[in-house]
Amino acid sequence: MKDIRNPLAAAIHYALGAGVVAGLAVTAAPAFAQDEEAADLDRVEVTGSRIKRTDIEGALPVTVIDREQIEFSGKTSVADLLRDTPFNSAGSFRPQSGSSAQSFAGVSLRALGSGRTLVLIDGKRAPVAPNVGAGQDLNSIPLAAVERIEILSDGASAIYGSDAIGGVINIITRKDFTGVELTWGTSDPKRPGGDREEASAIFGVSGDRGQIMVGVSYDERDIVFARDRPWSQGGASIFSNNFLTSGFSFLGGQGPNGGPGNVAGCNGPGFVLDGGFCFYDFTLQSADEAATRNESLFTRSRYDINADWSVFMNAQVNRVKTFGRYAPVPSSPWLVGGFGAIVLEPGTPNHPATPPSAGGLNPFFDTYQGVADDIVLLTHRFAANGPRDTSTDAQLYDVDLGAQGRIGNFDVEFGMRRTESQYTEIGRNYIVSALAQPQITNGNYNIYDPFNVPQDILQSFTSTIGRDANYLAKEFYANAATDLFDVPAGTVGLAFGAEYREEDYRDIYDDLQANGNITGSAGNSASGGRDLTAVFAEVLVPILDNLELSGALRYDDYSDFGDATSPKLALRYQPLDILTLRASWGEGFRAPTLDILSARPSFSADSVIDDPTCVAFGQQPGCETQITAFVISNPNLDAEDSEQFNIGAAFEPFDWLSGSVDWWKIEVTNRVAAIGAQQIINCLNGTSQNCPPGLSNLDPSLSPPNETVGQGLGVARNPDTGQIVYLQRGFASLGTIDTEGFDVNLRGNWNFGELGSLRVDAQGTYTATFEVDSGANVAGDAGLPRWRAALNTEYRIGDFAFAWVMNYIDDQNDALDPNLDGLPSWTTHDLQANWYTPWNGQITVGVDNVANKDPVLDPGEGRGFNFSLYDGYGRIPYVRYKQSF
Description:
Layout: H1 7-14, E1 44-45, E2 52-53, E3 62-66, H2 67-73, H3 78-83, E4 117-121, E5 124-125, E6 146-152, H4 157-160, E7 167-173, E8 179-187, E9 196-206, E10 210-221, E11 224-225, E12 241-245, E13 250-251, E14 271-274, E15 277-280, E16 287-289, E17 291-304, E18 310-326, E19 342-344, E20 376-380, E21 388-407, E22 410-432, H5 433-441, H6 455-460, E23 462-487, E24 490-509, H7 511-514, E25 518-519, E26 526-544, E27 547-558, E28 562-576, E29 579-590, H8 594-598, E30 602-609, H9 611-616, E31 624-632, E32 640-654, E33 657-669, E34 672-675, H10 677-685, E35 696-698, E36 714-717, E37 724-733, E38 737-751, E39 757-772, E40 787-797, E41 800-809, E42 826-836, E43 841-848, E44 876-884
């Protein structure tokens, strides 16, 4: 039977010394139940502090997801499990086909982003994902290896340094496991795509002097195509087969009476002729979500040298492979001729006005005689070359060696750790513009009939591209804790330590991409390295029998940008046995990440609203249109700073009921912001007040990217039409983030004897305020619901267990019209039944999203719905079998 003690107490008892989450705010994690055993627990390291203590009640606002809850959730990955937690307020990144972060899955506490959420594995930093450079990939953590997950909803830079602004997630792995456990499961979503299969095997043995556990696992999910979802079907791209003047004004096909006419080459799958213009439906071939496969080998071992000393080794090898598909290459950017589009010289075969008698290929050549002597530009789709397929392979190697023991009155731990994340990416069917332009100019590539172009011509300018990324971290650490002296109210405790870490990062794109010769790809190389030295200390001072003060201070020194000092203070007051009050204050920071400090310029096809560009493209003012943009780095960034506050209460009025309420507030200053394309346009138009310094109107005659003017951020426009020729965007230190809200937890645990037992956990997070740069409060707007909540109910009787999970996402203002409450709330229900067989097996049958509820649709989202906040799988039946020996 499961231990029904306070789950936090049990968790710490099971993993002595490994449960450090972060921060020293003295707050409480309410219990499901508490019995007399809690008072007899040995002194243990309370989550959130390195100081061992006997009183484990009321240490921090920590939410514990134990192994039983993990299994009852029906989830098969850490990413899916954490994506549904209420603290993940605005959702988080999931593997997206065609993205440079295709294999990445993150978590974003308090909607502050994955870069401001620190993920730990057994109290130590999870490795940085090299293809992202600023975040930790949850896909690299096998769920089969997880014993529990602890979520600290408070800042923690005073313990762990950088990145812990929004909070900390500590993933505690399984260690004290003895025996054999084999698991297999599969799921089949209602809608096509996203099928899943999982399997794992765990082996553990223990003796008088030590213990070892070894596990293997894999988890696989199928690709999801846009064409298989009604909300993502139908895309209209101007990169199909349209002509522009050299001044970037569109030349629509003209009929005999001046009305809309035919456009040659607007045929084949996906091409649509509308009003004299050609459009391409890219959703017929593109995928929304990439196929993923996670394979892991992990081991945990400990050997007791004597009664005081032990050595340990934790190691993991993980491999994540993905496959994504994007639509065939559009002709942007086209870096031949300096125009940013395919150049058609007068008199050449593909020029729209060249007659057949002169070798012209356009059957409607007479429509374009007005530009017979002019250079014409082409927006084209290389559909005959096939879709862009991207395969990625991410491998993680993590080894942690250390020792724990006692020297005099000090409990000590020291060790060294090496993590290396290796990432490779292969992309197929991309276009080398410098090789394609001559084939277009001489007519070997017929833009009006590309599907009948010989294969050898197509292959002459088709390229397979590559990317090689690596993030290597070497770390040395040492911690010590002791009781300093006694005071009337108790014992003063002290903990201190030091860390040294070397980080080396590179993300290298092949030479063709790096030099801007590949059309249809985004991203460019980045590399860098840094050393970090940190020292820290904590103290716990009992003031009264029911009142204690704690504090922490950490100093971090980075070799590249400078240093930072992070303090924290907390009070814990227990006026009644059933009530604990707590309050905390702390400061934090986030170091600028190596990728945005050093990245080379990369292309991006951005969608913006810009009236002159809309008109030049033959569309109405106010339309959303696609432009050529470049993303550039900023090596002069400084660290972000933060200040956090937390006030709360934990209560347990009855043995069967407990709960907590916490108010929190986070202020981020010197915010490192990605300055978006629309923001730059609005700033230069004078319609936005939140503008970084150094924006400028760029020279359209210069070949982009151009980083020589100010920060290099700005817009280049055609001097005659005002149309955007290209735009440059990137990062800058700009303004603030102010957010506050409260968390509510209620937990119940009832034992009905022969009629079974019932466990209920209700958790909700309310975001009252989220203001960026002192602007409007966007809490409740599209993408940031005010309320996220979850209700978990578990009922056990005899050899059976049943679970019901309800997830709730609040309604939001519509993205296209923030004044309308256009996006309804979203509630899903998951059901599960388990039979614990007489032969030590467990048969699980479940259904996620029983009502087959669609995601909340939003026309302002490119995929039809918020891809980070909801999922589009529909009903997901699944089965799982576990056998223990």
